[in-house]
Request: fold
Amino acid sequence: MLSRRKFLGHSAFGIGSLAVSGLSTSMLSTPALAKIKDELTIYGPPAGPSIALAHLAQSGALQDHVGKVQFKVWRTPDQLRAGVLDGSMSITGTPTYVAANLYNRGINVRLSSVVTWGLLYLMSREGKVASLAAVRGKTIVMPYKNDMPDLVFRAMASKIGLKQGRDYKLQYVGTPMQAMKMMIAGDAKMAVLPEPAATGAQMQGMKNGIEVTRALDLQKAWGSVFGGRSAIPQAGMMISGKLLTEQPELVSAFNNALVESGRWVSNNPTSAAKIGAAYLGLKAPIIERSIPFSHIDVKSGKQSKAELEKFFVVLKGMSPAIIGGKLPAGTFYQ
Amino acid sequence: MLGKKKLFMSGISLIVVATGGFGAQAEDFIDTLSMERHALAGPPSVPSPLELLLADPYQQFDDDSSLSTTIGVESDVANANKTVKVMGGYDGKSNAFYTGAQAKLMAPGVVMLFGNRFVKANDYKDANGDDVTFGYTRSTQQVMIQWKPTPVGTFRFVGVRDVIEDELQPHHSMDVKNTERLVGKLSYDQVLEGDRLTGFSVDLSSRNVEREPDNYSNRDNSSVKMRAHTERHILDGKVNTRWDLGSWSTNAAVFGGWDNQDARRYNDTLGVVNTIKVPDVTRKTVGASLDGKRSFGEGWGMQLGMRYDLIHADPADANETGDVPSGATGAAAWNMSPASLYRSYYGATGDLSRTDNNISARMRVTKAFMDERFSVFGDLSRKVRSPDNIEAYHAVTHPQAINRWIGNPDLDPEAHHKAELGMAWKGNNYVDYGVMGPNADGPFSSENIEVKLSGYVDWVNNFITWDRAYGQSGVNLSDGALIYRNVDALFAGANFEARWNLTNHWSATAKVAYLWGNNDSDDRALYQIAPLEANFLLDYQGMLASSGTWNVGAKLRLVSDQTRVDEDMTTALGLDDGEGKGFATVDLYGGLQLSNRWSLSAGINNLFNTDYQEHITGTSVASATRTKVNAPGRTFFVRSQMNF
Reply:
């Protein structure tokens, strides 16, 4: 069972340790996808939105297409990389930019849907802030250097004219759990945390008589800074091109079922948390409370293309290598 | 068997455990209240916060407490992270309408929970369609507050008021006009970072009980109007310290208690007291306990403990008498003081107070196998219990001896020597009932199952038995009055429970309990021993598209005959109303919930309208009569919940 510490350590929906530098050239080889007949295993990161995948597996929604559907959590980025390359992970949840990076490097994968539209929050022991500009002069604890929380935060700060080091400081830590602990111990006033670590920090603070505030919804801030919807197409489902070719009806059924499961999770956080606790090894009350802040809203890759491209452009502006050097071609979006 | 009195006494710990977030108090390793005994009588247990919204109304003539029907998906509405929850329902078993509400407020370091529940129960119909006199009005209020002034210190307060009015007792000569309980508990827990002393806790509790049965408020009575009034106030305190002593994790505690109980019976026709029922008994307790546990590696573990109780009890009004006018019929008998009754029946004279020095001890050894999925345990204990206020000092007099009920101040404490063996299996994919772990491998995998099995033998020296006066050793009279005496007794029992998640949707439960009790000194069966009982559940839980969940289920309850009874009140106690006749009932139930915000549950109890009576029945009032009352016939229930 994944420990709570380990869970929170990876709770950035796989953003954390999936450093772009880790996508080695060995990944450019064509994966050998397993033939899916009687059994399908869906993979997802050890994070809240994966509950939708667990629900889908339990719901029997794919019973017309697959004899047995399982959901498994990939525990480490290495597991994800290896699984995608050897073809054992033909359907897996992943950060959207990772899917784009793999696609641009020649791996036969597609993005079938966006599952979460952002789950990043600026947490504070000093109350709410009106805008991102309020971090001027502050030190912010940041998990996962050069990965999603860091990239998103720096992109927004840069856009509004804040320069790291001059206008604000980032104190990097390895995991959201470390950041959370520093806040509770009083060693940090502000931190950028993904869900469910953000909710975990609030509940831990509540338990210890410390007020940890959800100071700024970074999704809303993203909308304010870059224009458009208050949403970040943060993570979604990556599907092997081979599966899409061989069993398009299965992929279609999966996409439709995932829309229903995403709605079910958002509508039924208490029930979903029970499923999530069994799969993710985190306490159900934390999962339950984190679901409304996880912005689970499953939309197909095609539906999300405009927002994904806008997101990728911002990331590319920071470093083209993040998305594999260029915007993915249209076939990437399914 | 845990009697209802025990449930009441443990009401607070039930409340605290059920709140989860309020921080469950560890149970005493040596609990001298929880022992093998016959079924006891007393008011129903105080509802816990979860019971406030989910429990069926109390029904003393239909005891399905061994294994209740599955609550189902409505629990997700009751447990949702919402500020206000409300509930309303109808339960045909008690012909009761009931409502409940609960509000939870949270701030950093502070959690507050407020609850209210109201039940109005009425006459119900048995399987023959006949009305059974039944009913009560019950109102319960709860307040719970937890405050953490520092990350390592926690204050908790629990307050409960539970009032039951007009509780009809068709099998007794009196109905209970009023039962009121006020419970308050305040505790503080501090975690320390010492090398040895790792923390301490201080617990204080207060419990007030008032109860007033009579024979005229709720029934037609042209005869003598009788009423009884009982008041009891209990104060308890405990300081526990937690130590890390090398490989031993240890608790060292000191505790004390003050318990005052006074009861009078009145002849309201004459306007006089006619019995000093419990003569202002004050019971003081001080004690200490030490227990520790450690692991030895390779799955071996041990827990050891000792406990000392010094108990002093004193009946202050033992020489007081009733004030029935001398011209009234039987006045002399009515006006016998408790002291004179103790003297007549037991030869107790002089100082009627009593002091007990009780030493208890317990050892439990566990061994875990297979990554702790399978474990076995052996448990040896000696637990000593002093007679309670009723057993030692009850003093109900009456001109007819057979209607007297006299406690015995000379009783020795009863000493239980219990040996228990058991095993437990919990597969990797069994998370909870109805909740499978990820990726179970088919319905018949042992990894989907949780099983608990245990068996025990309890040899009791000086078991405090209820009896009738036949001039036994230590009993001076042979007039058939109800008395208490020490005997040697033997209990043996076995419990089996298996819970099985066949799939993510289908689950099943089997639970079997058996208790055997014997009065060895008199070579007869002990009274009020529940018969062998087996319960089975089959549940299905499904999804409602993206809206919610639903569940259906069935319960089969099988109760065997009870042929080992104490039914002859001319040669024994005669508390059992004949042998228990076995029966089987089937309940059907189901529910749905939408968005964890609204639920509707409904079902049919006793589907086949089985005509039956519980062997242990009508336990709300302690009485020498155990007239069986017909259980409800086929009934339906419906309950809805909402949260905001």
User: Anything to note?
Assistant: The radius of gyration of chain A is 19 Å. Chain A has a mean pLDDT of 86. The longest strand of chain A covers residues 109-116.
